[in-house]
């Protein structure tokens, strides 16, 4: 099975030598799980950070095989899938903890929320998904928290004291101060999806279902930000983001100021991540200024 060149390069950028080992053993892994779980694994979907491919079980049922290189990320996703079971999350069918491989249900028709042309309708649908997914944070968990996100930005600030790419050092410093401020305010911690956006919400029969959770423990306001950063128009970006925020604030009873501050700080962090991964996202960079303007207007 041929893997997409962009996917291979992303793996090597992130996982270095571990990626080479994984890629060398890839065909053997595919054969192993076809035998172990009675599957025929087909050509993969459009890949980004993990291997995801449709599969057919020996009984004719459709499924999806997913392989995750990062042990930490795999364990986090597994925990979220189990804790959010029956709440609008894709169903976990099988898994191999040691190898980072799982089988998930295949969602049909399976088109994403990005296919909805009316942006406000899409935001409303997303808000209902979020409302169903969020649960109280587990007491004993090694899952990433919003403090870990803060520490990620601290590391970037240390490594790039004069700014990072097109992001000025002042922007990074301001975002870091906001992370510190928001993370020290007392808020009930929730188990969050961690990467919920248009392309991680799929049509499933007559309803919509979330996929690909990263797992994060923190305030609910943080979990709407990734959605706000994605599928933005070429023009009227500010208006689009503000309309989405107003829908989320109303439907989910969120603190608007907190959403705006989380938006700015996470936009800085997300843009830094894309630079580190060698996959710079210019649209994320544009949202930094947008959130900064919205914060000023709300004061």
TrEMBL record:
InterPro entries for this protein: Kinase-like_dom_sf, NH2Glyco/OHUrea_AB-resist_kin
Pfam families on file: APH_6_hur (PF04655)
Molecular function (Gene Ontology), one example: phosphotransferase activity, alcohol group as acceptor
One record GO biological process: secondary metabolic process
Protein name: Hydrogenase expression protein HypB
């Amino acid at each position: 099975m041929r893997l997409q060149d962009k996917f291979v390069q992303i793996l090597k950028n992130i996982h270095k030598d571990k990626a080479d080992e994984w890629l060398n053993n890839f065909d053997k892994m595919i054969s192993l799980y076809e035998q172990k779980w009675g599957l025929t694994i087909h050509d993969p979907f459009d890949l980004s950070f993990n291997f995801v491919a449709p599969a057919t079980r020996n009984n004719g049922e459709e499924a999806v095989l997913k392989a995750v290189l990062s042990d930490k990320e795999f364990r986090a996703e597994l925990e979220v899938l189990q804790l959010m079971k029956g709440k609008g999350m894709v169903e976990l069918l099988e898994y191999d903890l040691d190898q980072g491989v799982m089988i998930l249900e295949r969602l049909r028709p399976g088109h994403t929320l990005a296919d909805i042309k009316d942006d406000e309708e899409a935001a409303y649908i997303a808000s209902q998904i979020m409302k169903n997914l969020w649960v109280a944070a587990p007491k004993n968990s090694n899952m990433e928290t919003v403090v870990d996100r803060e520490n990620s930005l601290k590391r970037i600030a240390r490594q790039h004291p004069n700014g990072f790419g097109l992001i000025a050092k002042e922007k990074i410093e301001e975002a870091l101060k906001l992370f510190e401020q928001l993370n020290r305010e007392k808020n009930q911690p929730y188990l969050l999806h961690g990467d919920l956006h248009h392309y991680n919400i799929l049509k499933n029969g007559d309803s919509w279902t979330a996929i690909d959770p990263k797992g994060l423990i923190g305030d609910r306001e943080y979990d709407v930000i990734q959605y706000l950063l994605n599928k933005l128009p070429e023009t009227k970006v500010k208006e689009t983001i503000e309309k989405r925020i107003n829908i989320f604030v109303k439907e989910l009873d969120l603190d608007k100021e907190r959403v705006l501050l989380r938006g700015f700080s996470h936009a800085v962090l997300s843009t830094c991540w894309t630079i580190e991964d060698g996959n710079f996202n210019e649209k994320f960079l544009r949202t930094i200024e947008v959130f900064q303007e919205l914060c000023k207007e709300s004061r």
